[in-house]
Amino acid sequence: AQGRGGRLLRAQLGLDFGSAFTKVALRLGGEHRVVVTWEGLAGPACGEGEGSSACLPGAIHWEGGLCLPGPGERTRRDLKRPLMQEGADPRDAEAFRDAACFLAWAIRYARAWLYRHPDLGPLARERRLAWELAIGCPTRPFRDEGLKGRFQRLAEAAWWLAGAEVIDEARAREAQARRRPEALGLADEPCVFPEFLAQLGGYVTTGQVQHDGPHALLDVGAHTVDAATFSLGTPLDQSAGPTRVVALLYETVRPEGTWELAEHRTRGTGVVAIRGPGEPCLGTEAFARDRGLPVPEVHRRDEAFLDRLCDRLVREVLEPSCSNTRWGAWRDRAWESSLPVFLTGGGAACPLYREALERTQQRLRARCSPHVSPHFRFRPMDLAAGAWRDVPSGVRRRASVALGLVEDLDGVEIRSRREARPWRLREPLSHEELYSEP
Fold first, then answer.
1. For residue 253, is it within any domain?
2. Which of 25, 60, 136, 160 is the most buried (most CB within 10 A)?
């Protein structure tokens, strides 16, 4: 629905379509940012952890030809994974239909939620809204135009369905058949943006960036852990190009998220691994007590899980980053002192993944000498503290992609490591800056 009239007001909707949970951020007039909470749509299914109210569980069900949110008799879950299969064209597939209908419900609810918001609702109701839609797309493989195209069509179909009187099989088939749905009611076509770069939106567009050069990111989701090293660069000539460049150096995506951890802990025991999508990820002893399992056995399994995760982080991401001589002064400065690292995603609150960072740091020092100094350490950073201080920290962590999608990132360009260049370096940080608490 549109407001009553008046001047046109820009309204941005950032849609982070996750494997387990979907998050939506809204921004009005280029200033006011809010993260949608889903109690009215999902109720207790959102869970009880910090920031969980911002997470919509990825489930729909079909009833008499109608698509309805949440679980039911004909429940559909794991809606994102089929769309990411290499070479797949899901326009005619059931997977595309289910994903589009689920996102349509998310969009419909988010728009209604905005009009009922105590602070932004009056503004939205009094103005005509020029809607813009941005959806996050998996970064790997880098610049996969086929994958980007699938998410473009998905966003278009979902927005069109969200405006339909009912969301049913007939309209879902119509949305699938349309190559470019007409009358979307958007100010521009939906924008498809790399999730990796969207996460950095609140960091690279503010004064929070303390230096150019290498950084690391560990995004812990329900199914996967996405790890990457990237380097920030400031081009010497900013008159005819981007004001900041993000070079994606090395990355890995592994099935070692929080749900996979729970499965690993309970495999062969007959104990239920996941009781619900909103269940928090517990530490070793807390999980063992909660499930009635022997603490030593859960500890042994956690140690094996940690060892495998840390080994992959070092071998596949960190070791090639610190030993590649192409990075020149970047490499020398970062690996002799400290590397800014961001721990994000729903699993960031789990003690085991924080322990994984500590062990990876130790393993890297031992394995990668002399490229890494004995005094090297990770420097934990808040990905979005500079831009979204009015958003609670737990919500910032869970919804960082959605929040980044409503940032203006036109001046930021993502490149592969083959396109990276030694851009301008700032002055080295002082000892106090390097070793102060974040």
1. yes
2. 25
